[in-house]
Specification:
This protein is α/β, with parallel strands linked by helices and 321 residues long. The protein has helices at residues 3-31, 36-47, 62-73, 88-92, 126-129, 131-138, 173-176, 190-198, 202-208, 215-226, 232-247, 257-273, 281-292, 307-317; strands at 52-55, 77-81, 93-98, 103-108, 115-119, 140-143, 146-149, 155-160, 181-183, 251-253, 297-298. A 5-stranded parallel beta sheet has the order 2-5-8-1-9. Strand 6 (140-143) and strand 7 form a beta hairpin. Helix 1 (3-31) packs antiparallel against helix 3 (62-73) and helix 1 (3-31) packs across helix 10 (215-226). The longest helix is centred in the N-terminal third of the chain and has 29 residues, at 3-31. The termini are far apart.
C-alpha cells in the first residue's frame, strides 16, 4: 500500500473514533440533561484511565450517569450497593469447596466487570471500602494467596452522599487519591428539570440506547488521548499550580506528584474530548477542580472552606501562560 494511503487510513480511523466519542457524548446528554460539562469531565476521566467519584445529594442522577456510561461505552457492568454489612468477599469473590471435585473453586465477585458502580461507597465500613484499593491501583485482586487480573478496560465509578448525612463512613485520603476525578452534578436548570418531568422516563430511555463504542475502540481512543500534544509552557503551568498548592498558607497538604500526573493526563483527555489540536490552558483549568478538589486539605485558618473555592483560589494565584 502506498505511504499516502496509509496516512489517509490513519486519518480516517481517527475521525471515526472522534465521531464515535461524539455519539457517546450526545447519548449521555439525552439521559443526563443540562450537564454537558460534567459529561465531558466524566468521559475525560475514563479516557485518562482514571476512576471517577461522584458526590452529591440523593436523587440527582449519580447512579444514572454511571449506568449510562457503561451503556454507551459498550462495557460489561456490575453494580455493588455498599451497605454497612458489606464484606470484602462480597466484592472480590470467595473460594467454595466442591465436594464432588475435592477442591476449592473460586467464585468471582462483582468486581470482575469492566465498569463497576460502587453505589454509596461511603455507607460501607472502611474494611469493605479497602477491598477496592488493590483493584483500583493494580487492576487485580488477591484472594486466598492467588492474584487474579481484572478485565480490560477497568473503571470504578463510585457515588457517595455528603459526609454529614447519617450512616456514612468518610473515605480515607489513601482511597480518595485512587480517584482521578471527583464530580458534583448539582440540581438541573429549570428547562432541563421541566423536560425531566414531562418527558420520557430516563430508565426506559437508557434501555433503548445502543452502544456508541466498544472496549477495543475505547482502548484505541485512550491511546489517542494520551498522545495529545502538551507544550512546555503548559507543563510549566501545571508545575506552578502544583507548587502553589504546596506553598500556599491556605492549604494544609498540597498536591503530590501522582496528582500532577493525573492533572496532565486529564487535561490531555479533555482536549481530545473537546476536539482541541493540543492541550490549551482552558483544558487544565476545566479539569483542575475535579482532579485537585478531593486531594487538597484546607488549612485551619483559611477563609476558603469548600474545595471549589480553594481550587479557584489556586487558579487565580497562578499566571496563565
Amino acid at each position: 500500500m502506498p505511504a499516502g494511503s496509509t496516512i489517509e487510513t490513519l486519518a480516517l480511523n481517527k475521525d471515526a473514533e472522534r465521531v464515535a466519542l461524539d455519539r457517546a457524548r450526545k447519548a449521555l446528554g439525552q439521559i443526563i440533561l443540562g450537564k454537558d460539562e460534567q459529561i465531558a469531565l466524566a468521559l475525560s476521566c475514563l479516557l485518562a484511565r482514571g476512576h471517577l467519584l461522584i458526590e452529591d445529594l440523593p436523587g440527582l442522577g449519580k447512579t444514572m450517569l454511571a449506568q449510562a456510561l457503561a451503556r454507551v461505552l459498550g462495557l460489561s457492568f456490575r453494580r455493588i450497593q455498599f451497605t454497612s454489612d458489606l464484606l470484602p468477599a462480597d466484592i472480590v469473590g470467595v473460594s467454595v469447596f466442591r465436594q464432588d471435585q475435592g477442591e476449592f473453586e473460586f467464585q468471582p465477585g462483582p468486581i470482575f466487570a469492566q465498569l463497576i458502580l460502587a453505589d454509596e461507597v461511603n455507607r460501607a465500613t472502611p474494611k469493605a471500602q479497602s477491598a477496592l484499593l488493590e483493584a483500583m491501583e493494580e487492576y487485580q485482586v488477591s484472594v486466598d494467596g492467588a492474584t487474579r487480573a481484572l478485565p480490560t478496560p477497568f473503571f470504578v465509578v463510585a457515588t457517595q452522599n455528603p459526609a454529614d448525612q447519617v450512616g456514612t463512613f468518610p473515605l480515607p485520603e489513601s482511597q480518595l487519591d485512587r480517584f482521578l476525578m471527583r464530580l458534583e452534578l448539582g440540581y438541573p436548570n429549570a428547562a432541563s428539570e421541566r423536560q425531566l418531568i414531562i418527558g420520557n422516563d430516563r430508565r426506559a430511555m437508557l434501555a433503548d440506547i445502543s452502544s456508541a463504542l466498544s472496549p477495543e475502540l475505547l482502548l484505541r481512543i485512550q491511546r489517542l488521548a494520551s498522545q495529545v500534544h502538551m507544550s512546555d509552557p503548559l507543563v510549566d503551568y501545571i508545575q506552578e499550580l502544583v507548587r502553589e498548592t504546596r506553598e500556599s498558607p491556605d492549604i494544609e497538604i498540597g498536591l503530590s506528584p501522582r496528582a500532577a500526573l493525573a492533572l496532565a493526563s486529564a487535561a490531555k483527555a479533555h482536549a481530545y474530548v473537546r476536539h482541541h489540536a493540543g492541550v490549551y490552558p482552558d483544558d487544565i483549568q476545566a479539569v483542575f477542580a475535579a482532579v485537585a478538589g478531593h486531594r487538597l486539605q484546607p488549612a485551619a485558618n483559611t477563609s476558603y472552606r469548600s474545595a471549589a473555592e480553594l481550587c479557584q483560589h489556586v487558579l487565580d494565584s497562578v499566571a496563565i501562560p
